[in-house]
Amino acid sequence: MDYVEHRMAHEAAREAASSALLTPLNLILASVIAYTLYASFIRTAPPAALHRGPPPVVFKTYTPRTLLPLNGTHDTPVLLAVRGRVFDVSRGRNFYGPGGPYANFAGRDASRGLACGSFDEDMLTKDLDGPLDALDGLGKDELEALQGWEERFLEKYDVIGKLVSQKEFDSSNGTSGAGSD
User: Are 34 and 104 in the same domain?
Assistant: First the structure.
């Protein structure tokens, strides 16, 4: 009997040890270790789309004529210029795109209109092939208002180009009367 009792005691101790290993805490720890090993050694590459950032911005030179069609119609980007800087305001399409409260500035030099707080057509450049608006006649308050707008645009939107007159563009490219880009 001694052998049988010894064998039964050994089996009871073994069962107690195996049930002690299968506690909820031990199962959780084993799962964490298994996941960590899986993630460390069998990790798959994330989809390529997650590695792509925004498309690269190409800095371009625009003239009033080449900027004009980029007003958000026909799925074009929404661009506008302030003091010779061309901003991509497409993220603000609800404001600057078709139907937005500032839509008349899209595709245009918005400097004078923003400075004066006016949406009137006479605030926009009419002669697309003439000189750019030198902002003559603006007072100190209007220039400060324009600076505030410019700072707001610089914080929110990318500068993607510069606005030059057609004459300046032609002379820098050695052409006479051709459009930009």
Answer: no
Residue 3 reports pLDDT greater than 90: no
Taking a C-beta distance cutoff of 8 angstroms, is the pair 63, 108 a contact?
no
At 85 the three-state DSSP class reads strand
Q: How far apart are CA 130 and CA 150, in angstroms?
A: 23
Alpha-carbon gap, residue 68 to 81, rounded angstroms: 10
Query: pLDDT (tens digit, 9 = 90+) per residue, 104-120?
Result: 999 999 999 999 999 88
Residue 136 counted as domain residue: yes
Query: How many independent structural domains does the chain possess?
Result: 2
Residue 181 has pLDDT above 50, yes or no: no
Percent of residues, the chain, with pLDDT higher than 70: 75
Do residues 71 and 110 share a domain? yes
The partner residues of 85 in beta bridges, in order of sequence, read 82, 162
> Are residues 75 and 155 both part of a single domain?
yes
The one-letter code for the residue type at 74 is H
Which residue segment(s) compose the domain that 24 sits in? 8-41
Name the H helices within the chain.
2-21, 24-41, 48-51, 64-67, 93-96, 111-116, 140-156, 166-173
List, as one string, the DSSP characters of 124-147.
S---TTSPPP--TT--HHHHHHHH
